[in-house]
Amino acid sequence: VLVNSGSRHEAKYLSGISHFLEKLAFSSTARFVSKDEILLTLEKHGGICDCQASRDTIMYAVSADAKGLDTVVNLLADVVLQPRLSDEEIEMTRMAIRFELEDLNMRPDPEPLLTEMIHAAAYRENTVGLNRFCPVENTDKIDREVLHSYLRNYYTPDRMVLAGVGIEHEQLVECAKKYLLGVEPAWGSGKTKDVDRSVAQYTGGIVKVEKDMSDVSLGPTPIPELTHIMIGLESCSFLEEDFIPFAVLNMMMGGGGSFSAGGPGKGMFTRLYLNVLNRHHWMYNATSYHHSYEDTGLLCIHASADPKQVREMVEIITREFILMAGAVGEVELERAKTQLKSMLMMNLESRPVIFEDVGRQVLATNTRKLPHELCTLISDVKSTDIKRVVTKMLRNKPAVAALGDLTDLPTYEHIQAALSSKDGRLPRMYRLFR
User: Fold this and answer.
1) What is the mean pLDDT of the chain?
2) Ranges for the Peptidase M16 C-terminal domain (predicted)?
């Protein structure tokens, strides 16, 4: 079951509700006394369960033997609509979340933290810019009443999709009618009054966290102290036609870590490998990411290097953004398109991915584009499309996230100036001596 609900809908609520709901999933319900009972029921059908909350979707998933379809749908309906949310479970969730937040700040891999920061910078205090993790100060404020008032607004039939893979459509429809239709949820079926329909407002901006990164190592060989920078620009939503050219562009930029071994299969031909990691041995990472939502998107590059080389690193990245609008080689474009198609096809070999793909597409658009349709769209992308979407993207203000020792970080204004210049260079700094 996928629900159109997530941290982006928490503007009128305490931040962190989705994080709580994710952790509370598959706990006791009206029919099941405890989580153990749910797991035992699933075990009879060789089943496993999982819940994942993102910025715009909460997904309750079960994989089990197809013969157990009836039991599974019944269980899912119970988990989603009839959770007991006992005081003990909520207390346990508070502890789990506090532990997760501590862990997040101690991890050597700053990726999750940077992703939060870049979203906060790009969409300041609105929709997808709202924090996905529950802030520490809210852990004690969220209780059953708060959760129920949120669930009453967002867990409504028009915001849910029941998706299934490996079963006949008619069977699934029958089960849905039997267990999901007309069920009175645990929070009652009052009128929804506070559904947040606001559209993402891209603001651009910078979020900086000064942090000593010299002691993140876990083992005897120390990880070098690094400063991490992420620079992003608004792309487009996954409902727009430009989404496919942006996906190809992201593939073309590629990148990864500096100690990634292996041949061409590792994306060694992507621009961030060829132009950045191969030429600047001191760069530890340069990777392109594309986040897309139903009303906006964000294309960003994450780079990391020694704190003393931050200024040079930022300039290299801003230059790469400017070069995106330049000439795109025929071979390079074909390679990126082929890579994107093969990645799509390889991912769709796995059933959980098909399930998520079906569910998310239907939730957002009420239909599903089939893989061959997507492949045709990818094949149709021309170098002029790439140039067009990049030129449009570069008109926006950048979003910047910076983590670590930021002594040499250029100012936001300088980064913005570099991105609107012809060559992507930072304005030169002249020191005046008396």
Assistant:
1) 93
2) 141-340
Q: What pLDDT score does 23 carry?
A: 97
* pLDDT, tens only, 186-239: 998 777 777 888 999 999 999 999 988 776 666 676 778 899 999 999 999 999
Q: Give me 409's structure tokens.
A: 């970080």
Instruction: Parse the chain into domains and list their residue ranges.
Output: 2-180, 205-420
Q: Which CATH superfamily is domain 2-180 in?
A: Metalloenzyme, LuxS/M16 peptidase-like (3.30.830.10)
| Domain 205-420 falls under CATH 3.30.830.10 | yes
Q: How far apart are CA 170 and CA 395, in angstroms?
A: 49
Round to whole Å and give the CA distance between 330 and 334. Answer: 6
| Sheet containing strand 399-404, strands side by side | 205-210, 399-404, 227-234, 297-305, 283-292, 255-257
- Strand-pairing partners, residue 232, are 300, 399
| φ and ψ at residue 35, rounded to 5 degrees | -60, -40
The residue written with tokens 């992308």 in the block is 381
Q: Which residues of 263-272 are buried (b: 16+ CB within 10 A; e: fewer)?
A: eeeebbbbbb
Distance in angstroms (rounded) separating the CA atoms of residues 205 and 412: 8
Average pLDDT per run of 10 along the chain, which is 434 residues long? 96 95 97 96 96 97 95 97 96 97 88 96 96 96 95 94 95 96 89 84 97 72 87 97 97 82 62 93 94 97 96 97 96 96 95 94 95 97 97 97 96 96 87 49
Q: Residue 50: phi, psi to the nearest 5?
A: -160, 150
